[in-house]
Amino acid sequence: MGRILAIDYGTKRCGLAVTDELQIIASGLTTVETKHLLSYLKKYVSFEKVDLFVVGLPKQMNNSASESEVHIQQFLVQLAKAIPNIPVQRVDERFTSKMAFQTMIDSGLKKKQRQNKALVDEISATLILQSYLTSKS
């Protein structure tokens, strides 16, 4: 069994999270500048078996697509061309940034550490992945 890799896509940087090989535990992986994301993913899947990409689906409170969905759709087309053998699943990502920030507070991070947007993105990706794992079981 391979890993599941989650992407919290952003126009500047993307948070990444990954499961263990048994697809039980979601862990933050890293944050990558968006312009380097495809090359990072190609390299990652060349040395790790990945069964699925989980990509956040940003929605407004009224369930309509968020403005960033346009950019995500463009990325998904590029991803399908670059790595066609790994399917993509979308997961509602509403509130993940707020939940990530609260997680940072709850874990006792100092204010300066909580201002690290890259860490927020990585935690958000982990929350997206955990949401997928929970819905799957």
UniProtKB/TrEMBL annotation:
Similarity section: Belongs to the YqgF HJR family.
Aminoacyl-tRNA synthetase is among the record's keywords: no
Domain of life: Bacteria
E.C. number(s) listed in UniProt: 3.1.-.-
A molecular function GO annotation: hydrolase activity, acting on ester bonds
Compartment(s) of residence: Cytoplasm
UniProt name for this protein: Putative pre-16S rRNA nuclease
InterPro entries, alphabetized: RNaseH-like_sf, YqgF, YqgF/RNaseH-like_dom, YqgF/RNaseH-like_dom_sf
Keywords per UniProt: Cytoplasm, Hydrolase, Nuclease, Ribosome biogenesis
A Pfam cross-reference name: RuvX
Domain (YqgF/RNase H-like): residue spans on this chain: 2-100
Main location per the UniProt record: cytoplasm
Matching SUPFAM superfamilies: Ribonuclease H-like
GO cellular component: cytosol
GO biological process, one term: rRNA 5'-end processing
Hydrolase keyword on record: yes
Stored CDD domains: YqgF
Function: Could be a nuclease involved in processing of the 5'-end of pre-16S rRNA.
